[in-house]
Amino acid sequence: MLTADRVGSTSISISLPVSTASYTDSSDDETSPRDKQQKNSKGNSDFCIKNIKQADFGRREIEIAEQEMPALMALRKRAQGEKPLAGAKVVGCTHITAQTAVLMETLAALGAQCRWAACNIYSTQNEVAAALAEGGFSVFAWKGESEDDFWWCIDRCVNLEGWQPNMILDDGGDLTHWIYKKYPNMFKKIKGIVEESVTGVHRLYQLSKAGKLCVPAMNVNDSVTKQKFDNLYCCRESILDGLKRTTDVMFGGKQVVVCGYGEVGKGCCAALKAMGSIVYVTEIDPICALQACMDGFRLVKLSEVIRQVDIVITCTGNKNVVVRDYLDRMKNGCIVCNMGHSNTEIDVASLRTPELTWERVRSQVDHVIWPDGKRIVLLAEGRLLNLSCSTVPTFVLSITATTQALALIELYNAPEGRYKQDVYLLPKKMDEYVASLHLPTFDAHLTELTDEQAKYLGLNKNGPFKPNYYR
Amino acid sequence: MLTADRVGSTSISISLPVSTASYTDSSDDETSPRDKQQKNSKGNSDFCIKNIKQADFGRREIEIAEQEMPALMALRKRAQGEKPLAGAKVVGCTHITAQTAVLMETLAALGAQCRWAACNIYSTQNEVAAALAEGGFSVFAWKGESEDDFWWCIDRCVNLEGWQPNMILDDGGDLTHWIYKKYPNMFKKIKGIVEESVTGVHRLYQLSKAGKLCVPAMNVNDSVTKQKFDNLYCCRESILDGLKRTTDVMFGGKQVVVCGYGEVGKGCCAALKAMGSIVYVTEIDPICALQACMDGFRLVKLSEVIRQVDIVITCTGNKNVVVRDYLDRMKNGCIVCNMGHSNTEIDVASLRTPELTWERVRSQVDHVIWPDGKRIVLLAEGRLLNLSCSTVPTFVLSITATTQALALIELYNAPEGRYKQDVYLLPKKMDEYVASLHLPTFDAHLTELTDEQAKYLGLNKNGPFKPNYYR
Amino acid sequence: MLTADRVGSTSISISLPVSTASYTDSSDDETSPRDKQQKNSKGNSDFCIKNIKQADFGRREIEIAEQEMPALMALRKRAQGEKPLAGAKVVGCTHITAQTAVLMETLAALGAQCRWAACNIYSTQNEVAAALAEGGFSVFAWKGESEDDFWWCIDRCVNLEGWQPNMILDDGGDLTHWIYKKYPNMFKKIKGIVEESVTGVHRLYQLSKAGKLCVPAMNVNDSVTKQKFDNLYCCRESILDGLKRTTDVMFGGKQVVVCGYGEVGKGCCAALKAMGSIVYVTEIDPICALQACMDGFRLVKLSEVIRQVDIVITCTGNKNVVVRDYLDRMKNGCIVCNMGHSNTEIDVASLRTPELTWERVRSQVDHVIWPDGKRIVLLAEGRLLNLSCSTVPTFVLSITATTQALALIELYNAPEGRYKQDVYLLPKKMDEYVASLHLPTFDAHLTELTDEQAKYLGLNKNGPFKPNYYR
Amino acid sequence: MLTADRVGSTSISISLPVSTASYTDSSDDETSPRDKQQKNSKGNSDFCIKNIKQADFGRREIEIAEQEMPALMALRKRAQGEKPLAGAKVVGCTHITAQTAVLMETLAALGAQCRWAACNIYSTQNEVAAALAEGGFSVFAWKGESEDDFWWCIDRCVNLEGWQPNMILDDGGDLTHWIYKKYPNMFKKIKGIVEESVTGVHRLYQLSKAGKLCVPAMNVNDSVTKQKFDNLYCCRESILDGLKRTTDVMFGGKQVVVCGYGEVGKGCCAALKAMGSIVYVTEIDPICALQACMDGFRLVKLSEVIRQVDIVITCTGNKNVVVRDYLDRMKNGCIVCNMGHSNTEIDVASLRTPELTWERVRSQVDHVIWPDGKRIVLLAEGRLLNLSCSTVPTFVLSITATTQALALIELYNAPEGRYKQDVYLLPKKMDEYVASLHLPTFDAHLTELTDEQAKYLGLNKNGPFKPNYYR
C-alpha cells in the first residue's frame, strides 16, 4: 500500500477548499515559478513561489486567520520570553494556507528557523506563500505543481548548503520519505518528527515495526483533540455544507446511507438526522455497529438499501466500498460522495466505461448517465467532499496547529532518553493544554479542583485529568 | 406602509439566489432589451428579454427543474384531458426562474394563455426567459431592470390591443396595483387574483377592508403547506447554508440570538441547536415565547445578550429590530443577518455614517469597522439571507407553484357566488391535495380510512381531514 | 357516536394518574359515601365525599399545587379587588384533583359560588375533595363511583332548592347533557358553557349544527395554549415516562411505529427519536404525512412494519387502528399502547378470545399470550397511557385551568350580544394573556414593541399579535 | 480513600432498583436467615437466603431475564459442547438479581462450580436467591443484611472445607479484599480476578502499583462496551426516568446544571437538551469542557448559575461537588440529585443541621426546608439516582454479564505467561465479540470485509478492527 510509487498520490488527490479558490484562480501568467527570478523587498531570494507581488493580499488573509487562532497567538505571548525553539531548524511539508502561515510565524517567534514545502500540489494559497516569502520564510510551493515540481520543492527545502534541519513537521509522510530515501544521514541531527496525517502516521508505524525508524516521532493525528474536533465536530458541519454548495439538495425527508460509523460517520449521521433525513448506516466493526443502533440508525448492508436511497456517503477509510455493481443499482438522481479518506472509497474508475456518459454540470459535480437515462450525481470525482467542496473552519485548524507546535516544543526540549525511536502520542497533559487554550473563544469557565478533591481523586490539580486512552 | 410610493420597493430589495448567479453573470452586451429587436424561431416577437439565443441553455434548466416538480407534471397529466383552464387568460408577475417556467408551461398545458413580467428587478434568469419566449410565451423581463423598466414590463403584459386578462397571478401585489391604478375597468372581466406574498396579501386585505376589492382573491401565502414548508423546513436548512457560504463560520459552541420565534425563527433555532450552537430567542408574542421556552431556548431581551453573542439573526417581519445602539454594543466579529422580511429588520442605514468604514470582503459580505477596530460582519446588507446567499430548494418551490396552479383552477371554475369580493384561503382539501402530490417523492405511503373509521370520525374518506384552522 | 347510552363512558375509561394513586388507595371503610352523614368543622353538610377527616392531607396537596400554578395565584391577586365573578354561580364537572381545587378556590376568590361533581368515576382524589368540603365547597365526588353514583352526584350539584347555576364548567359534556335532559329550563339563566374536552366540544358543535345550542359556549380545548402544551409538549415527556414506568424498556435502537402525526404523535415521535429509537409513522392526512417526512420519519402503512417493530403507539383519535389481524402479526414481546383518545384505538375486545391467555404482570401491564407462546405487552388495556401510567405535569394543568377561569370571566362579563348561541374559541388576546402569566416560571423576558414598530405592523402594543388561526 | 474501615461502604450506599422493590418488600417473618435451617427440594442446605419457598417466583423472574439476555444464552449454546470452564471454581460477589442468575447459570453450563455472595446489603432479590439455591447454587445473601452479615456471607462463600476457588468474580473489591486479608494463601491456586466496578478496579491498580497484586486481574469496567453502553446510553435514559418517577417534573424549559461531562454527563445532557431543558455544564478537564462547548452547552462554574437553575445533577466521580454553600444559594424548589458515583458528590451531611427541617415526601424524595421556607428537593439522599430511582435495562446488564463471562473464560484458559500479575483490559477482539452477540436484538446486519479490503486495511477479516485505545 505504501510503496514508493504511491508516494505523494494520497495528498495529490486532495483538492483546494472552495472558499479560497477565488483568491488563487486568477489567471496569472503561465511561466513556471521554477523559471522565474523573484526577490522580496529585502533582497532575499531563497524561495520559489508564484508571485511575490501578491504578498500584501496574503498578509491580510493571515491577519484574518490570526483573529481566529487565539491559542497560537497566546503561545507566542507566553513562550516568547524563553524562546523554547531557539536553535530549532524546522523543515515542514504541509498545506500552505493562511492558517499554516500563522503556525510558521509562531514557530519563528518561538525561536525556530523554518523551510517549507507544500504537501499537496493543488492546495497552496499563492498569495499566502508570497506573504511568507516577503516575511523572510523560505517557501517552495505554488498551486498547480506537477509531480516533478512537488519533489523538487521538497528537495529545495532540505538540500541547502550549510543548513541542516533538526526537526521535521510532516503531513502525509512525503517529506520524511524523501529524507529517508535521499539524505538518510540527516537523521543523525534530527531530534524528531511530528506527523499530522493518517497516512503519514501509518507509514511511521510501518517503519517502527520494521525497526527502521531512527528518531522519535509524534503522532499528532491520534490526539484526542484532533480526532474529536477535526473528525466528529468538523464533519458534522461540512457534510451539510459540502452537499448544499454542490447540489442545493433539500435534506428533509431524504433517505441517506452512511458507510462507516467512526468519528466522521458519527458526525455526518448526527447532522443529517437533525436536518430531517432518514439515515441508514453500514459498519464492519460490531462495537461501532452497536453504537449506531443505540444512536437510532438502522444498521444495514449496503445492498439492502442501495435501490432506495437518495444520497450515499462513504466514511470508512477503506477502498472499493461503493463498487460499480452498487452504482448500477442506484436510483435516478442519487448523489454519491466521499467524506472518508483519499479517493479510494468509491470505485470511480469503474465508471469510466464507454456506455456511460459523463456531464460536468458544475465545478466538482458530474452527472454520470446510464444508457437508459439514469443519472448519478458524483461529487468531487470521489475525492474528499469536505476538502473539495466546503471549507475547514479556522477554529479546527487552530487546534491542530497548536498541537503541532506543542509537539515540536516537546520533542525538541525532551531530555535525552524520554523518547526512543518509536511513535508516540502527545502526552495527555499537552492535549489538555491545547484544549484549555481554546476555551476562551467560547467564554467557557473551567472549574478548578480543591486540594481536598484532587487528593480524593489522586490527581494533580493541573492535570492530566484522564488516562491516556480516554476519548 | 403600503402607499403608492413604496410600491415595488419590497420586491426590489430581494436579490438573486446564489446558485443561479453563475448562469446570468455572463457579461452580455450592454444594450437595453427595450432597444433590441428579437424574434423567436417561429417569428414571434411579442416579448422583451435579454437574449433569445440563450433559449437552449434555459430549456435544459427547465428540464432539470421538471424532474423535481413531479406534482406539476402529474397535474399536467391528470388535468390535461379536460383542460380546466381553457379560455383562461392569465397575466402573471413573479420571479422568473426555471421553476416558474414549469408552472407557466403547466398552466398552458391546462389551457391557459399567459403573459408574464418579473416581480423583482434582479431575480430573472435570462436564459429561462429566453426559453419561454422561444416556446411562445410573452415574457417581459430581464436581470437588472431599472425601476422604469420594471413598470414598463408590467404594462406590456397587461396593455395589449385585443387581449384582456381574466386571471391575475401576482407575487408582491405590484401587478394588481398597476391594474387598479391604470386599467380599473379590466376588473370587470377578471375572475380572480391569486397572490403569493405576505406583502401582496396584506395589500389585498387592506383593499378588502376599505371595500375596494372588486374581485375574489386567493391568499396562497397562508396555506398550510406554504407556511410550514416554505418557512419552517426551508429556513431550517437555508440558515446554515447562507451562513456557511458567506462566512464559513463554525456553528459548534457559537452563541446566537434569534429575534422572533415564528415559523422562520423556529426553523433557524432548531437547525442551530442541532449543530451545537447556544441559542437565545427574543419574542413579543407570549405564546411564541412560551413555545421557545418549552423548546429549550432562553427567552431574553436583545439587550441582555447583545454583548456576548457571535451571531444575530432577525426573523420578525418587523422593522428596526437591530438598531444602531445594539450594533454599537456587539462584540468584534459578530455576524449580523436577516432571515425575516424585506430589508427593514436591521437598521442598516444607521451604519452609513462617516466614522464607520465599510469593507466588502466577499460577495454579500461587508465588514463594518468601528473607530476602535471592532468589525461587524454584515450579510447581504441586511436583505434576506436565504434569498441572497443560499438557494431555495426546488421541492419547496414545487409546493408553492402547485398551490398557485390549483388556486387559479379553483377561482376560474368556481360557480357564480361561491367566492365574493373578498380574500380567501385555499380550501383545506386543495391544500391536502397539494401535499398528497408531493408524497411519492419520499416513497411515503398514506393510510386510508375504512368506511367504519370515516363514519366514526364524521369525515369523508378523501378529506378534508382537518378543520381549516389546523396547522 | 354520541347517543345518550354512551354518555359517561368516554370519561369512565380514563383511569387515575399513577402518582396520585398512593394517596387514595388506602382501604377506608367500605360504606358508600351516599350512606354517610358527614359535616365539616363549621357544621356544613352540603357535600358528599369519601371522608372529611382526610381534609388536612388534601390541604397540603393543594398547597403544593399552588406553588406550581403561579398564573392562577396571580389571577387571584390581580382580579381580587374587582371580583369579576361576583354573582356567578358556577356548576362544574371535572376531574377533582389538587389542581382543580386551586382553580375552584380561585373562582371563589374572584366572587363565584361553586358546586362540583367529578367527570370520571375513578379520578377523584378523595383527600382533595375532603379539603374542598372542609373549605365550604359543595363537592359531590369520590374515587370508585358507580355509574348510578356518577349521575346522582351531578344531579346533586345542579338540583338544589333555591339555587340555580348561571355558568357551566364542563369536561366531557356529561353535566351539560344532564341539564339538557333533565332541567332544560335552567338554560334561561345560564350565561354560558365552558367546555374542556374534545368529546364535549364535539357534542357542542353537534348541538350547534342541529340548532339546539341555547347559550354561548367556549371551546377551551382548541385554544392554542391547550393544543400545543397539553398535546405536543406534554406527550413528548409522558410517552417516555409511561413506557418506562410500565415496562422499563430501553429506547435506544428500538423500532417504533407511531400511528398518527398530529400534535400528540409529533410529541411522541420527537421524544423517541431523541432517545435513539427508529420511528415509523402512519397517517391519513397528506399534510401531516408530509410533515412527518420532513421531520425525518418514514411514512408507512401499518402492515408494512407490523412484523418488525418493538413498540406500537396509537395517537389518531380514531377507532380500530390496531386490529386483531395486526396483533396476530406482531413479534414476540411487542409493546402496544394508546396515547390518543379514549380506549377505541386498539381493538382490545378482539383479544378476549379463548385461545389467548392474559397474564397481569404489573399494575397496568398485561401479557397477552398466543398459543405458540408469543407474548404481546398490552399497556393500560388500551386506555390512555399518559393518564393511566404517567402523571400530567402541574404546569400544563395550570395553563388549562387558567384558560378555563378566563373563559368563565369572559362569558360572564361579555356585553349582551357579543356572543350568540354558538361555539366560540377563546379570543386570541386571552390565549396570549394565559401564556404571559406562565412566562415568569421560566424567567423569560418578553420584548415590547416600540410605538413605531406597532404602527408598522398595524398591531396594538398589547396584542393580539397573531390572527386567530395562527398555531 | 480505600482503607479497610471503608470497605463495603461504597456498595452499601447503593440501594435497590425501584421496579424490583415490589417483589421483596413483602414483610416476611423477621427471623435472620443465619438462624434458619433451610433445604432445597433435593435436600441440599449449603446456602443461606431469606426463604427457599420463594423459588418458583424467582424462577419466573429469571426466565423473563433470559429472554432479554440473548448473548448469554447464545454463549451457553456455542460453548456448551466444549465446556471452557470445566474445572473452574468461581467465587463471586455481585448484586444478586435475575440478571446475575442468568450469568451464574451460564457459567455453570460452561462447566464452572459457583459460590456467591452479595456485594450490597440491600440489592439482593430474595426470590432470585431462592431460585438459585433451589437450583443447587451455594448462595449466601439476602436483602437487608447487617454489615456483620455482609462479611459473614462472603466468608461462607470462601471458607469451605475441601473446596478452594480458582477464579474470582468481584464487584467492588470486597471479596478480593477479604481473601487478601484472611486467606492470602488461596491466591496460589487462583488463576485470576475479574472485577466490574470503578472502585474495585481502583483498588486493583493500587495493589498493582504497590507490587502486591499476586494474580492477573481483568478490568471489565473499562471495556468499551461497558463504558459507552452502561454510562452514555443507559444514563441518557435513566436520568429522565429517575427524575420523573421521583418528582414528576416537566423537563421543557427547565434550567439544569450538570456537573461533569464524562460519559454519564454526556448522556444526561443529551437527554435533557432533547426534552427542551436549558443545560449548563461544569468541568475540570479542558478536553471534556471543549466537547461540552461544541455540543452546545454553556460551560460555567457552578457558582455562576446556582441561583437560577431548577435542577442540579452531579456526574463527576468526585466528592463535595455540591457543598452547603451552594445548597444555601439554590432557589426554592430546586431539585438536587447524583448520577455519578457513590454518595460523595453532594455534601448531604452538611444538611443535617438543626436549622434545616427534613420532610420525607415520597420514597427516595426529601424536602429539606430552610428557616425562610425555601425547600430543596433532595433525591435518594444523594446516592445514585439511576440505581435508586430507576431501573437498569436488562439489555445493558446483558452486555456487562457477557463481558464478565468472557473475561473468566479468557483468564481461565490463557496459556501460562500471557497474563502477568497485573491489571488488564479485555482484549479488543472480545469486546467486539460481546458487541456482535448483541446486534441481532436490533436486527442489525454487519458488513464483512472482502479479502481485498482486509488486505488494504491490514486487518484480519474477523477483527479486531480498531486499536485498543479506540473508544
Describe this protein's structure.
Four copies of one chain form a homotetramer. The first copy, chain A, is globular, with a radius of gyration of 23 Å. The first copy, chain A, is built from 18 helices and 15 strands. In chain A, the strands form two sheets. Chain A has an eight-stranded mixed β-sheet with strand order 9-8-7-10-11-14-13-12, covered by helices on one side. Chain A has a seven-stranded parallel β-sheet with strand order 3-2-1-4-5-6-15, sandwiched between helices. Mean pLDDT of chain A is 89; it is low at 1-27. The first copy, chain A, is an alpha/beta fold and 471 residues long. Helix content of chain A is 39%, strand content 14%. In chain A, helix 6 (126-134) links the parallel strand 2 (113-118) and strand 3 (138-140). The first copy, chain A, has helices spanning 9-12, 18-24, 55-67, 70-80, 98-109, 126-134, 147-158, 174-182, 198-209, 224-247, 263-274, 286-294, 302-305, 324-329, 385-388, 394-413, 428-438, 451-457, and strands at residues 89-94, 113-118, 138-140, 167-170, 192-195, 217-219, 255-259, 278-282, 298-299, 311-314, 335-338, 357-362, 365-369, 375-379, 423-425. Chains in contact: A-B, A-C, A-D, B-C, B-D, C-D. Chains A and D meet through helix 10, helix 12, strand 9, helix 17 and helix 18 of A and helix 10, helix 12, strand 9, helix 17 and helix 18 of D. Chains A, B, C, D: Pfam families: AdoHcyase, AdoHcyase_NAD.
